[in-house]
Give the backbone structure.
Amino acid sequence: MSLRTDLALESAQQVSPDALPEGVTKLERSRKDIRLEVTEITIETENAARLINKPAGRYITVESSDGSFSSYSDFFDGRVNCLAKEITRLCNIPERVLVVGLGNRSITPDSLGPRVAERIFATRHIKKLAKDLDTSHLCDVAALTTGVMAQTGVESSACVKAICNEISPQLVIVIDALACSELSHLGTTVQLCNTGISPGSGVENARKELSQKTLGIPCIAIGVPTVTDMATIAQQASTNPLPQEYRGMIITPKTIDNLIYRTSAMIAASINKALHPTLTYEEIRSLTM
């Protein structure tokens, strides 16, 4: 049975458990010093994209080898720098960037995007208004949270497109919570990709995608698996079929509050570092607290 997932690594393994499908390549990088394993999957052909059901492009999976990101780690600064470097691997950082946090702040497993967005060092207003300051070393950054359609009545993609038309960013970075099919990836993994995102696709609530095709500019997506579905647990724990009344149930870790708190801080810091490489983490934190 094919299980729902937002992770390209899992999708490729479901299609071909023993070997990568034709048209898919994999590179692995180990960061033992900060307890991270990095896997880069590249879907090179449209045929492979249809087979895996993911758009052609690059997908970077950064996985903790010492447990969930919900726990305190002595490697926080190193992991921030690692993620910042992986962001710059996906794209050249331009002069103007829009960072978008997707999701529902009121539902903890879905609040990753808004929590990251509120920690982004937004500089667009500073560069426009503070004429007496030297801001040449700062990227022109705007940050946006869209809410969800059930709250606003508006597609997130429409909100982002409207803002792009107004401020003309050269890159959009989208952050959203993800779903996974392997329990070992739940709360231990960050996925970065240059193909954009279809919000809610991992839990069968897909909205219109945010991508270069829909926005007209490059769009990279960053996410952490915060949920899986009951079918995943049932398949891994038992050979008995899942009772009908449990199908469609979504499961999240009991440490979800800490997971969102720590991963939002880590992802926001890595984005800030990638966009403003001349600033230290302490400087950025003092400007965003």
Remarks:
- The longest helix spans residues 256-275.
- The radius of gyration is 19 Å.
- The domain at 8-288 is CATH 3.40.50.1450 (Rossmann fold).
- The mean pLDDT is 90.
